[in-house]
Write a structure and sequence with these properties.
The chain is mainly α. It has one domain. It starts with 6 loop residues before the first helix and ends with a helix.
Length: 118
């Protein structure tokens, strides 16, 4: 039994190493893309439906340009939702202030009427 390797054994090992390197690069890229999309969307990937998780996996197979574009859209959608929520909060506070002002005005009027009636 010989312990020597043939040139084809060496080529096979080189190919296996190259394939392993490509796999590691692909996994690293996929993880970076996934992180970029999850961060841009501001969501918890564990709380996504199975369909949404499939779409997220599908998107991570695209190129930088596409992932950047999708991330940009997610950021814009999240920003719009935050602005809408902020606007709704401001509207509620403004309505409460208006109601409070109306209540103060009514109380002042009642007080003035009582004082005038004395």
């Amino acid at each position: 039994m010989s312990h020597s390797t043939t040139p084809s054994d060496g080529l096979g090992r080189i190919r296996a190493l190259q394939e392993d390197q490509r796999r590691q690069e692909r996994e690293s890229r996929t993880a970076r893309y996934r992180h970029r999309l999850v961060t841009a969307g501001g969501f918890d990937p564990d709380n996504l439906s199975e369909q949404a998780q499939r779409i997220l996996r599908w998107l991570t197979d695209w190129d930088d340009w596409t992932v950047d574009g999708v991330a940009e859209m997610l950021i814009a959608a999240r920003t719009a939702a935050e602005v809408a929520a902020h606007r709704e909060t401001i509207d509620r506070k403004f309505e409460a202030l208006r109601a409070s002002d109306a209540a103060v005005a009514a109380a002042t009027t009642r007080y003035d009427e009582r004082e005038m009636g004395l």
